[in-house]
Amino acid sequence: MIDDVRLSWSNTGFAFESDGQSATARITEGWQITHSADATILEIVTATGLPKIGSSYLDAGELYCKRINSPNRISPIYTIVTVEYEAEVSVDSNGQPNPNNSPINDPPVVEWSDESSNEPIDKDWNNVPIVNVNHEPIQGVTVDIADPVLVVTKNFATYNPHLIHAYRMATNSDVFASFPAGTARLIGSSAKLVVSGSQRYWQVTGRFKFRYPYGQNATSEKAWYFRTKNEGFKIRLDPGDDAEDAVHAKDAEDNKVVTPVLIKEDGTLETDPAAAHFLEFQRYGSLPFNALGFGV
After folding, report:
1. Which DSSP string corresponds to 147-186?
2. 43 vs 37: CA distance, rounded Å
3. pTM over 0.85
4. In whole angstroms, what is the distance from residue 237 CA to residue 233 CA?
């Protein structure tokens, strides 16, 4: 059983080897572990609180734990474990290590393109309702929309897939890549763990699509809302009625309609297709996209 794990004030060290252009920096730590007399070596080196292989040494740039040396069992209940962090770094003009020269600090790779999709419309470019000669709405008319798509690749020290997944169901609450709030969506992401020498980082790619608002009275905040005509089979006979009081709409021959009819905002029958009322539903949440750290 492990009783206590703590960093020792002794058994620490630093080593720096250089060929004049690049260098290897190493930091050594000593960890004190107290435990029961029957604790095994495996239990000791995997104790909670002890750095693991690949753990980052946050106070010295991008150094990572590369090895855990043989534990020195001082007594049956006391062991010292030496942990070594290592990184390949550049050398500054004074011959000192420069841990800031890391892939984490590389600028993002940015690529713009566009992606087309067919979206339904109910009015033409001049805001005239799309109806036939008898003023009946024509279904199935679409417009080809080209949405800007941004692909950004950047290196990160860590990667949290759970955090990224939350953004798949959100639009931007802030101005992102110069686009106003509500217009951006994360439509895809990928992450690759890169291990190069002592350097270990994640190469993360995010794909973002931006939707220009379209349709009558459309706004940026509602660019990704679902928009549909307010129509159905039931209508309210009086604007003051409740939804529970709605009755099945009837045609001119007093028969129940078999196709949906237009409904006003107050739930009563709308007979003018040009005055059709539309409903908008929020499909996604809202999150600050700049918090993702892609730097665009």
Report:
1. EEEEEEEEEES---HHHHHHHTTEEESS-BTTBPTTSEEE
2. 12
3. no
4. 13
